[in-house]
Every structure is written in C-alpha cells, then in structure tokens.
Amino acid sequence: MVQELKGRLNVQFQGEEGIDAGGLTREWYQLLSRVIFDKGALLFTTVGNNSTFQPNPNSVYQTEHLSYFKFVGRVVAKALFDGQLLDVYFTRSFYKHILGVKVTYHDIEAVDPDYYKNLKWMLENDVSCIPEMTFSMDPDEEKHILYEKTEVTDYELKPGGRNIRVTEETKHEYIDLVAEHILTNAIRPQINSFLEGFNELVPRELISIFNDKELELLISGLPEIDLDDLKANTEYTGYTAASSVVQWFWEVVKAFNKEDMARLLQFVTGTSKVPLDGFKALQGISGPQKFQIHKAYGAPERLPSAHTCFNQLDLPEYSSKEQLQERLLLAIHEASEGFGFG
User: Which of 93, 126, 142, 339 sits between 20 and 30 A of 322, alpha carbons compared?
Assistant: First the structure.
C-alpha cells in the first residue's frame, strides 16, 4: 500500500477528456483540500483569525472520523512527496504536532489571547494569593475548549489534581499541563490518526529538519504578496505613515525576497496566507483587522515583536534604517515564540 502511494498519481476527471501533464493533478489536490477542510465535514475547524485549521475536537460526531484523519494525513504527505501545494493553512500548534515538537503556552495566544494573557500574568506574578487554583480545569474552561458539547465536567490535569493547589513552585508545571491539554489532549485521537497516515509516506525523522514556519511554506507554497496593497491597508499607532521608522520599514521590506516576505507575514499574522480579496480582508481574532504597526517603547535595540491575533507588529524606534533591517530580519528568522504582551 505504502509503495503504491509513492508511485506517480495520474488524474482523470469523469466525463472530461485530457491528459494529465500535471495540471489535472494540481486541480485534484486543490479540490480535495477544499472538501476535506470544509467546516461541514466536521473534521477540521478554524481558530483565532479564522484562516488557520486544526482538528475539530467534536469530529467524533462524524462516523469513522479517525479513518478520515488517517486519509487526510496520507493526502498531505502525498502532496509533499509529489511536490504539490495544498490550499490549506494549519495552526502553529498543529504544525508542531506533525513535527513532533512540544507545544508551549505561547501557542495558545493565536487560539485564545485572553487565556494566554492570564497564563502569562501567572508566570510574572505571585500566585500564592490565589488559594482556589488547583491542577484542574473547571467546566466553563472545558466547555470553551470543547465548544459544541453540551455536557462537560471539570478535568483534572494530573491524578487528584482538583485537590492539589497550584503554588509558586508548581505554576510552571501547571501552565505546561494546561497548554498540553488545550492544544493536544482535546484532539489527541485525531492527531494520532493524522500522523499514522502522514508518517507512512513521510517519516518523522525526514520532516523533523524543518521548523513549523518552514513546514507551512512546504505544504502551501510561497505566497504572492502585493506590497502596495499591504501598505495601503496598514494602520499605525504611535507612528504615522510619514514617520522615518515607518518609511525605513517599507523600504527594507520592499527589498525582501519572496521567502522573507512570507516570513514577515507569518511573524505578524501567524500564517503566510494572503486573503483572497487582498489585505483589506485580513482577519483578526474578533473579525476584520488590518495589518498594524505599533510603536514599541523600551530599549531601542530590542527586537520587533508581534501579536498574531491582532496582526500587530510592535516596532521599536530604531536610530537607522540599517539597524531596523538587521533587527527585523533577525526577528522573522530566529524569533520562534516568546514575544507578545511584554
């Protein structure tokens, strides 16, 4: 079966004539990905800015849902194997699952920025003054994760968790367990079935040389980014379009190659996907949200940071165009996570 999957795929549409010289295969992959990721199929759901997908925790309502996930894993792997691009973008945490990389609480920001802020507050403050906090999720929190289920009980993050208090010494463990539960446990059967199909064709050791952003570009390709359109649909806070830092920014970005342009879009919006209707249709966590450039206060040599749920780039007031270029390139290439709400 696996050897057959590695063979060349020839596509012929029923009732249509045509020799598959590559175009029909490309069209087949595009059509298939649209059907698989249609919300009506219940397999995947969009989160955050409504443009990135991850397995739906309620796919259980779809009969044979796990065999479908295995099939989807095979389709994504076969597309990679054949060098075909798919019209689909996953959440950062799901790319990490494919790569076998541990998810962290930073990955929650793209899914639920308010919850992320609460966890970040816990790390930065003394939690010993919150006696009612235990190693468990209350029913309201569970309902938020499994949003379509009507009957939800609390969930223990570890055995006996509802009776174990979270202290200053154990809060890092608590946050790790919360991230694992929200981003993994709720969809673990779906993830495992997807990976079972995916790894038949593409073993983990082959794919693990890439990071999550590179994997997105491998699966979905480098986007065509219209810089004039992006510039026309950008809003500023603390700066204006006439600010020297803003003008340097656009001059630097204009000189970017296609890969760095895609990385910039990933860094600020969480995905390299360009909206079909252009950047005026860019979505944030609460609906339409244009590309944002905010003035970042603090040390002038710090790296730019981003809040992907708001399509927001926090740009320090650099002293030269050269410094801005060096800092921006470093951020989009090296900064994997840990930015935001600082």
Answer: 339
Asked whether residue 74 is assigned to any structural domain, the reply reads: yes
pLDDT tens readout for residues 208-264: 999 999 999 999 888 899 999 999 999 999 999 999 999 999 999 999 999 999 999
- Note whether 158 and 302 are same-domain residues: no
Q: Please check whether residue 268 is in contact with residue 291, taking contact to mean a CB–CB distance below 8 angstroms.
A: yes
CATH of the domain at 287: 3.30.2410.10
Q: Torsion angle, CA of 138/139/143/146, rounded to 10 degrees?
A: 80
Do the strands 155-156 and 136-137 form a parallel or antiparallel pair, or are they unpaired? Answer: antiparallel
Residue 286 falls inside a structural domain: yes
Q: What are the phi and psi torsion angles at 6 (to 5°)? A: -80, -10
Q: Which residue has the tokens 């802020």?
A: 117
pLDDT in tens, 275-313: 878 899 888 877 888 999 999 988 888 999 998 888 999
In a 3-state reduction of DSSP, which class is residue 229? helix
In the set 309, 313, 328, 332, the catalytic residue is 309
Shared domain for 59 and 198, answered yes or no, is yes
φ/ψ of 167, rounded to 5, equals -115, 175
The percent helix, strand, coil of the chain (3-state, each to 5) is: 50, 10, 40
Q: 94 with 204, same domain?
A: yes
Q: Which domain holds residue 194?
A: 2-99+187-220
257 in the same domain as 120: no
Q: Is the pLDDT of residue 77 over 90?
A: yes
Q: Is residue 341 part of a domain?
A: no
**Is 129 assigned a catalytic role?**
no
Q: Range with the lowest mean pLDDT among 119-128, 194-203, 314-323?
A: 119-128
